[in-house]
Write a structure and sequence with these properties.
It is built from 12 helices and 8 strands. By secondary structure, it is α/β, with parallel strands linked by helices.
Length: 263
Amino acid sequence: MEKQKKLYLGTNTKMYKTIAQTQKFLTRLREETEDISREKLELFVIPSYTALYHARQCVQPHEIRLGAQNMGWEDTGQFSGEISPLMIRETGADLVMIGHSERRHVLLETDEMERKKVACALRHNLTPLLCVGETEEEKRLGLSDERLRTQLKAGLYGLAPEEAAKLWIAYEPVWAIGVGGTPASKEYAEEKHGVIRRCVEELFGKETGRKIPLLYGGSVHGENAPELIQRENIDGLFIGRAAWQAESFASIIRTVLPLWIRR
Ligand code: PEP
């Protein structure tokens, strides 16, 4: 299979870092990674909404791309508490995470809501990072592949191949994420990335499907990152806790980037 041009490595800081903490983290991450060429690395950070504008002031887009953790699906309107794509663009961010497990399972977002957000992000030239993943129960019942295919077919419904080519997808099994999560084994993660790859190829054609970066997320850390990144269908890692200290994140980047280049 044709190799992705870049390795995708990023983190979502959830509801943890304040503006000052985000700036400190980004400044440190930039310093820790400034000697690493971005030719083969797409490094991104997804801070809280309130920190986005300030985050953009301390790092350049070619050093670290910035994204929002969520987005409303209308440009303006009677949607108190929502943030529109225009507002995200105004901060300087050009990426938006859609359908994170916490949005789906804690805040009860549906596949249809994610579909509207993906379409809206693309209309505004924001790169959507659509997160998909099965629950523990779905895994136990042998429904994982169906769940992934449903989330993809519903969430990406109606997109043209040229729009789909701008997407990123993260496979984040719900049982693997966060405190108490169990990371997927490299074999399991690769198998599910294969299911996702085949589904996007089916939806948008082989050429486009092959190009969509598929990132694995869920309890990635310094020890399992190297083996995950060497699997054929894993184009990047979406890391939570293990990346929230700039030094640990930089150390993961330094370990996996050469392995991925040699893959
Ligand atoms: C996440 O919340 O998307 C995530 C991957 O977190 P962690 O790496 O901490 O499991």
